[in-house]
Amino acid sequence: MIVGATSQNLRWQVHGRLTQFGLAIASVLATFTLGKAKDEQGNEVDIPEWFTDTPNRTNALHPAIRM
Length: 67
Prior knowledge:
mainly alpha; HIG1 domain-containing protein
């Protein structure tokens, strides 16, 4: 524990650090553009039907890689 620091003061220090951490994560995420991929002509590329959002990793693999 920091000498001379009260529990209330310590609580605000932790809160301030967590706020700074959250703002840092938000600023990094703001640099990403989420959306479909585009080809050379600027058309959206469709997601292949073999790709799914299943938690079973073997189903999410390309058909040539599946065992």
